[in-house]
Amino acid sequence: MTIKGKHVLQAVLALCLSLLFFVSFSNVTTNDQTAYAADNSLQKVKEKGTLVVATSPDYPPYEFQTTKNGNSKIVGMDMSVAKKVAKGLGVKLVVKSMSFDSLLVAIETGKADVAIGGINPTAKRRQSVDFTHIYYSGGQSFLVNKAEKLKYSSRAKLKNQKVGAQTGTLQYDLAKQRIPGVTVKGMDKNTDLVLALKTHKVAAVGMETPTAKAYVENDSSLAMIPSGYKLNKNDVGAAIAAPKGSTALINAMNKSVDQIKKQNLTDGYLKTAGTYMKTNTNNTSMFHYWKYFAKGVEYTMIISAISVVFGVLLGTLLALMRFSHNKLVHAIAVAYIEFVRGTPLMVQVMFVYFGIGIIVNLPALLSGIIAVSLNSGAYVAEIIRGGIDSVAKGQTEASQSLGLNRTDTMRYVVMPQALKNIWPALGNEFISLIKESSIVSIIGVTDLIYQLNIVRADTYRGVMPVFIAMILYFIMTFILTRILNHYEGKMNHAK
Predict the structure, then answer these.
(1) Looking at 42-176, which runs of residues are DSSP E strands?
(2) Residue 148 and residue 120 share a domain
(3) pLDDT of residue 494
């Protein structure tokens, strides 16, 4: 190994150890906060006057979105439960949207006070968070294609078949444990699972009975069969999750939950949810949901535009650091670039939002912009470095012979020529950024992919919303390509 290689390796290892120390420190901080929350969890909620609830609004009739008086709002049985609980606490309800597999992480990292979303209080989950009493038990079912209802009339008939279930749910674990020879296909969204079912990628999809029933009532090509599971009553049903040790808050919420069960209020909540669902399916044309797509395009463009600016600035800085004669500066730049390029953008987005969020409570949109900018900066740095290296060495020597110092040589001689060389690659990075920014939907940023999934959940249409999103992405990237090509042409014709 060369000396330069050793310095790079040492820098990368140092960066990794620093991140591990940060995570360990964060965990200690979180544990301390959790222990402290055992005494003041309820007091904290009452003092700020809000109950922040995390949910994934793509699971009708539990939670989904609808348009009322031109405004989009999250509705469903769980939202009615959350309102009842917030009212019982004497505070205002604030809802945060994100993917289902991020709900428990959100309350563990302080992004939300509680989480609700048809969450089953399994023994495994109880190790990480606390739960209220169960407020509704809907049972378990399988969704199947109506034409195959006789073929898959019971759970036993699903032996050695492919069965779909939402990742991280009780349905996923049950299918894996209790269906012999099964291959479980896990996906983040029920809408994706239903599409997989209708295209025969899976034989059945495990769901809560009310959700399966909602799909059957709104899609004549689907049917449902009973699961036949015999389950522990403490694991079955939906409950509200809160941070571990939030005894005071849990006890206060249980007063409302017990009242909901005693008065059987969930029947009314489900009836109201059904009314909203009928409203959604009265007109499932994509034009009817144009505001959803327009909002998605707006956020996608905002994230991409800001991330491009900061990505270029950071990338330029990192590229210049790589050319520095200072070994430490050079090693830091190399370590950063290699680390960012070696980790998925999804992980980086979640780390910024949930990890750094432990210390600084960053909004989802800002977290997404930061993560995408930091990621883009590493790739832009390599593009710029390659462009600088492509400038003939004689150009630098000639400028030095004219008396230009290193800074002026880079500014007036090398960079103008390098920009012309790197423009096509830089343009590709800008275009990729528009598409890659879609990953921010996992933390609840209402970009185009997020809105696409909402429309799919509301309309029970699997393919058309995807097609519309593809067209919109194409339009955005095509326009940007034309603009970039225009300026590339001007550069090529410039004297």
Answers:
(1) 50-55, 64-68, 71-75, 92-97, 114-115, 129-131, 140-145, 162-166
(2) no
(3) 58
